[in-house]
Amino acid sequence: MVRIIIFPLLYRQETVTRLPVYAADDVLVTFRRRLRQPLLFEGYSVNWHIQGGRILTDRGLETADLSVTGGILSEVKAAHASTIDADGLLVLPGIVDIHGDGFERHIMPRPGVRFDTALALKDTDRQLVANGVTTAFHGVTVSWEPGLRSLDAAKQLIGAVCDLRDTLSCDTRLHLRWETFALDQMAQVVQWLSLSPRPIMAFNDHTTGSVMNGTIARKIGQMAERSGLSRDDYMTLLDQIWSRRAEVAIAIEQLAATARANGNVLLAHDEASPEERVYFRALGAKASEFPLTLETAKAARQMGEDVILGAPNVVRGGSHNGALNATDAVRAGLCTVLTSDYHYPSPLHAAFRLSSPDASDFPLIWNLISANPARVAGLDDRGSLVAGRRADLILVDAGDPAHPHVVATMVQGQIVYSSGLSRVDRRSAQRSPVNRAS
């Protein structure tokens, strides 16, 4: 069922499967363009007072109230704020996902079967907020391959993100995954580095692993399939790309220098050894994404660097391609960030697999999907429920810890998703000025 939720100064369209939050005849609907920011009708937003919930702090979960004024967390309850009764619910920082390419399954759910990019992004947006993700960096691969990860596909996707960003519920950003053998595509990547907000930039090398029969080689069939080539044609193209390997190191150093000067966060993906970590560290890559060996992860952590792994690895009980076990890495202190990777429900579920709300380590585990990725991305305005930060938060019913349920998602003070949030008193809503944030 599709409905329009009407707050005194805003509207939000969403698809739900439970009973409506409000009766359909509450108010008269006036249609206006939705905004990602809580800048509703002449720069005003609804203030909130969330009461009775168990709020996550550094000390653990504490039953307390939380106020939102102008899209920002506040220690002081705004006059005439709307009240949300969160009794029995956990109030948690919104999930910050800095590496996710699940949207690719919305664009191409089957090999060779493509859907409209804007349609795919809008569907992805609904899935993100329904799973508690309030900030998402779409991992856009820029490769030498044709097809789904080609330069043309990246142009189409990035153009659509730029066009739609202000209408999406989740704060949607870009994570440019440049294949280091995509030499002819580098000039376009340089231009994209200047987009606002600044994209994350990651160095990816799936080419060497394919040629040298590494961990990537087993995916050759899948890679050929998504590119629209036969396996033989793909291997012929791979040989041509490999013949230019002498040019790669210089290109990496040039792009790294440009990104550093431009202020982009730099990451290195699939590092195969401590030596590679040293190399990319010198180029400014501040974190190791999906290191291929335990020794590489240790090398990063010994230098106080972040190690990023996939939450699906935790949920499934191991890597689908034989890489590091993320649960073991977390327990050993060798993983500091978990991402959706290819499955948007996984960050939420991974946190509850690794800990439980009453456990002493629950705040540290939740940091893996909130405060830590926000820090890596350079976003110091979110990731924890502290006064002065953005009101990016989720209400979670953890009655069944194996299947935690997101009851509501709030992005900068707007309820952008709800499922079963039937206890909202909005009779005393009042307008409050909102600061426009980029």
Automatic annotation (TrEMBL):
EC code(s) of this entry: 3.6.1.63
Domain of life of the native organism: Bacteria
Matching Gene3D superfamilies: Metal-dependent hydrolases, Urease, subunit C, domain 1
InterPro entries the UniProt entry points to: Amidohydro_3, Metal-dep_hydrolase_composite, Metal_Hydrolase, Metallo-dep_Hydrolase
GO MF annotations in UniProt: hydrolase activity
Keywords: Hydrolase
Amidohydrolase domain span: 251-417
Entry coiled-coil feature ranges: none
PANTHER family the UniProt entry points to: ALPHA-D-RIBOSE 1-METHYLPHOSPHONATE 5-TRIPHOSPHATE DIPHOSPHATASE
NCBIfam families on file: PRK15446.2-3 (NF011987), PRK15446.2-6 (NF011990)
Protein name (record): Alpha-D-ribose 1-methylphosphonate 5-triphosphate diphosphatase
